[in-house]
Fold this protein.
Amino acid sequence: MLPLVPASTMLLIKAQVLLPDSEHKTVRIDYAVNSQDISFSDVADQKKHAAVDFMSVARDRDFKTAGYSTDTVEADFVPAVYKQIMQTGFPSHQELELKPGTYLLRLGVIDRGSQKIGTVDLPLRIPGTEPAKKQGP
């Protein structure tokens, strides 16, 4: 997750990043990790177990951390949910509170079972508020 380290590609990450808006004051990140790359283990009642760590880090132009989030999804999935995850991807959601500015956002995922890692970098610009327009002559 360090800046300037090449991306890791053992896990395929799909992510949707939504900017703050009038209803949401945070950057919202929705993940769908390729489930074929995640190691699931069999547990009781025909469930499948997985443990996956998610991390997002926003860095400013000087590579200083401006915001970050870390989460672990550890769960046992019933067969119907497991089947859906295998088709749509292993999901997670994170939110970051960032001030207006330009950032490099690095998303990272680690499958605890296999120790596979995936990262992706993307530029992110949080627009500021528009200055008030001068009225009159």
Helices lie at 79-88. Residues 13-122 form a domain with the Immunoglobulin-like fold (CATH 2.60.40). The chain has one domain: 13-122. Confidence is low (pLDDT under 50) at residues 130-134.
